[in-house]
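Run log // design_07
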């Protein structure tokens, strides 16, 4: 007898962290950053690789230029310069996201610390009240036995 487990659908993404959602919404307001994100996403895809394989094959097979392909080398070098810049932009974005999460975690820790201090203070007040009630009831018990 086999058991079937309901695995969550891969199409269902977990909800975004609230701090990251706010950060992304702010970032989406910038046309430059949206363009950089789109280029980085495309450059990191297999579609990008396939396009380059076809491009290089066509360039060489149809002899767009003679060996040693000086123009192709220059184009690819310029592309590499721009792509490395987009990679750095992407890394900066990842750093910004990590910082947003760290700042949010710090706020939560500060809030929890305040709550813990309040709970500790309340616990000490309860302890003092319990001691006072115990002292009063112990005193009545001794007075009643005389």
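design_07 sequence
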């Amino acid at each position: 007898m086999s058991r079937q487990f309901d695995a969550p659908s891969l199409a269902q993404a977990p909800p975004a962290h609230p701090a990251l959602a706010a950060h992304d919404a702010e970032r989406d307001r910038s046309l430059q950053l949206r363009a950089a994100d789109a280029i980085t996403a495309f450059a990191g895809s297999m579609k990008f690789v396939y396009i380059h394989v076809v491009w290089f094959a066509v360039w060489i097979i149809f002899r767009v230029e003679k060996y040693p392909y000086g123009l192709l080398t220059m184009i690819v070098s310029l592309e590499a310069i721009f792509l490395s810049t987009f990679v750095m932009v992407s890394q900066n974005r990842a750093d910004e996201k990590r910082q947003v999460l760290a700042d949010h975690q710090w706020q939560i820790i500060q809030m929890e610390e305040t709550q813990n201090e309040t709970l500790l203070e309340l616990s000490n007040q309860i302890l003092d009240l319990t001691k006072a009630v115990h002292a009063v009831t112990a005193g009545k018990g001794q007075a009643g036995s005389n």
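The radius of gyration is 33 Å.
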